[in-house]
Amino acid sequence: MAHESSFLVLVHIFILLWHFGTYKVSSKPKVPCYFIFGDSLVDNGNNNELYSKWKANYRPYGVDFPKGDTGRFCNGRTTADIIGQFLGFNDFIPPYATATDEEISTGVNYASAGCGIREETGSHNGGRFSLDMQLVNHKAVISRLSRLQQNISTLKECMYLVNIGSNDFVNNYFLPDHYNTSRLYSLKKYTEVLMKQYSKQLRTLYKMGARKVALFALTQIGCTPLATSKFGTDGKPCVKEINKAAMLFNHKFKPLVEKLNTDNEDALFTFINITSILYPQGDRAMRTPPCCKLDGEWACKAGSIPCPFRIFHIYYDALHPSEISNIAMATRAYHAIHPADAYPYDIYHLVRVHN
Ligand SMILES: *[C@@H]1O[C@H](CO)[C@@H](O)[C@H](O)[C@H]1NC(C)=O
Ligand SMILES: *[C@@H]1O[C@H](CO)[C@@H](O)[C@H](O)[C@H]1NC(C)=O
Ligand SMILES: *[C@@H]1O[C@H](CO)[C@@H](O)[C@H](O)[C@H]1NC(C)=O
User: Fold this and answer.
1) With a threshold of 0.85, does the pTM exceed it?
2) Where in this chain does the entry annotate a coiled-coil region (predicted)?
């Protein structure tokens, strides 16, 4: 298992070097702007000023990030950051919370740790912007853009990334002490209700001008150090019930994008199959302990010294992938290696389709 994982890391480093060789030289981004929606997997500091436990604006978060501890739940860049670099953006897309008028014309990141598709998801730990709220914020940004006399029709040419849904399971359905969803719905029914709401939210995004939209399906959320330590695994590497939930949900992405694309003639929704990317061996996947020392269930302990060899850890804290994992996911989301990685387009092709 150990050599499988180090081999994988090496492969990813080569892909990364090759990518930077290819893409760093381009001066003009492939799309005029890039908008990001989602949870802690792509949050870049929107929660910093909220009254909330969903925060990462302290060391050792950001130890490998040029601007330090910005609020990213990682040692370095998120998948959204890396994809932005592949798209040719020289600067990171700013968080909604602090984005200036000058910055918003190239895009905004609305993502918020702890949030979900459902409004109540994550509320037990305090403030966060739910997906509905993020859409409201996007509407406000569009108004700001029109006030600044920007051409709103270019919004159709922009890239949109949405990475959400994990918290609706791990910080809602599987927390029966705080949430009633597991009493209201069977798991199967819950994934249906959730997907229905998600589909509605994505239609709202489309109505606000989004056409090229990449949806990240869920990782095997039953394999995180938090899940395995909290629920136990019966000797297996992962928590079966939680992975089953993710799988039930993930299998609805293909019909979702097909429906969105046929109902809306010029829509280009696509989904990224993260399961196949982060855990190529399925349940026998690499399982490494988190890199940082924990404070409580999942977060890094403030001021602690992180592990020295971060490229050998899948997870940075007990929930969030380390930068090396994000590089692997972003690289294959951008340039699919396996046919199962992206459907119907990887991001490289998505931004080149003419709509
Ligand atoms: C606005 O952008 C669209 C699409 O890029 C373009 O076709 C149109 O000519 C632009 N309008 C103005 C007034 O610049
Ligand atoms: C379930 O919880 C939500 C808030 O989290 C509440 O609005 C709703 O009324 C509850 N439903 C039932 C049937 O208890
Ligand atoms: C993701 O990819 C794996 C193979 O790598 C495949 O077994 C699985 O069905 C795919 N998931 C979806 C939702 O397409």
Assistant:
1) yes
2) none
